[in-house]
Protein: Diguanylate cyclase/phosphodiesterase with PAS/PAC sensor(S)
Organism: Alicycliphilus denitrificans
Amino acid sequence: RVKERGRGSYGFYQPQMNAHLLSRMKMEHAMRQALNHGHMAVHYQPQVDMATGCIVGAEALVRWTDPEFGVVSPGTFVPLAEESGYIVTLGAWVMEQAVKEAAHWMGCGTPLVVSVNVSALEFRQAGFVERISALLAQYGLPARWLELELTETVLLQDAQEMQQVLDALARLGVGLSIDDFGTGYSSLAYLKKLTIHRLKIDKSFVGGLPGDGGDCAIVQAIVSMGRALRIGVVAEGVETQAQRQALQGMGCDCYQGFLCAPAMPAADFRVRMAEPATGAKRIAKR
Ligand code: C2E
Ligand code: MG
Ligand code: MG
Ligand code: MG
């Protein structure tokens, strides 16, 4: 945005831009304080098996409640953290919380896969795989209970280097999923070449089910492709029974969405996953 103003315009007084920059800087400063002050938390959103209605996994989602700014949405602060590089610190913290939590679930005799979002910058850090391996060892969590969510943009970067990291993760036994599938620059070739375990259908497509013909066609195509390639498919942002039914009819494995539950604090999720007949199960059988 600054660039668009052109050369030589920086000296002019631009109150709007200054206010914007100031609030950005304030927010970034607050964000850097938030971890140490305990204002960040990791919440967990259930992933539900279509056929049985059982909770089969959870996505770890970071939450920030600031004394000054109130609840700040990840849609606002994650991009800020990505631009400033702070995502490396924040992401490492989220990863440790998630691995620790999944180890707790396993200790209770109910192991579940935890999915953690990984930004491009984190993924590119030297020693990324080694740090994950060390974390799993530290908490005694077998790698198969951890899944990393990458976006198509991550997969587009320096192909050779990326492939080496993905291969190392696959050897370790960590699951890999493609988040927001269909919204980035998809090169379908990588689905064949890389070890990808799951596709997460972006909620923008799910939102149009079952009425929108275009969304139905896209979702059906993704589900069919996933099945043919033996890659699991998870639908994101399922809010209604009609959407769930449409997805099940198309052969989708699994969903995530407010229909079952939003992301919740770790303590609430522990209670929820321990229920013999979960809300999700009742919905599926209705
Ligand atoms: P995402 O990874 O695609 O996560 C799914 C988003 O959809 C979450 O938003 C979740 O709360 C929301 N969602 C779940 N079910 C529904 C539903 O039924 N309807 C609607 N409308 N939304 C639903 P959230 O938590 O605000 O996160 C937004 C994005 O921020 C995430 O999108 C992810 O890209 C990023 N993010 C969140 N936590 C982390 C993190 O720990 N690390 C990184 N790198 N990114 C994160
Ligand atoms: Mg995600
Ligand atoms: Mg995402
Ligand atoms: Mg997504």
Residues 45, 61-62, 73-75, 78, 87, 91, 94, 117, 119, 149, 179-180, 203, 236-239, 256-258, 262-263 surround C2E (ligand 1) (CB under 6 Å). Confidence is low (pLDDT under 50) at residues 1-9, 279-286. The CA atoms of residues 245 and 261 lie 17 Å apart. DSSP finds 13 helices and ten strands in the chain.
